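Subject: YoaK family protein

B.,
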Amino acid sequence: MAFIAGALNAGGFLAVHRYTSHMSGIISGMADEFALGEVTLGLSLLVMLLCFIAGAMHSSWLILWARRQRLRGGYGVSMMEEAGLLLLFGLLGAGLSLHKGFFTPLTVMLLCFIMGMHNTIVTKLSGGLLRSTHMTGIATDIGIELAKLSYYGRESMPKVKDVRANRAKLRTYLLILLSFFGGGVVGALGFKHMGYSFTLPLALLLFLLGLRPVWYDVRLRFRLWRIQLESH
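Prediction pasted inline below.
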């Protein structure tokens, strides 16, 4: 998921000329534009923020709905829907880029919505510990674990807790960071040489990732349905 996020963020920049997952930059830019009197540009950035939040809300709603239905495929449904929207972005991106939405091109709005969904899926899956697009937090966590790893307590202090690095977390954070970077390189090259059509393999990968939990629910419900029929 971090690889796909990196590919969409870096590759999407070549397609729509905006980093659509960097909400810190979006909000800072919005503040700058409003302070400078550039109301239209400020409103454009506001629309990007709202689209990202809307994507996060929608993905969260799907996951919560699946939990209430006692389904395990809520994450899968969200991934598959995101894959469909990404496919739409790839197929219609060139045409959508010509149409202005609410102060913002429709391609940018759609990609922000997708990135909001993408980040939410990983956040919910990890219990709020990880975010696939938020490399500032990941880099901070890496620094914290490296500090623990390099810290040497020369004196024994029984009343003070020992400083120990969580090596498993450190490996996970490093893997996410490298995956995001690798995805960014691949995404930039893909969009450079293939344009919007590069989203097609990314959409297929997302679809396959989401298919497994959804297929599990389908088989389980079908099995229960057959048991009910046989009991009658």
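The longest helix spans residues 199-231.

T.
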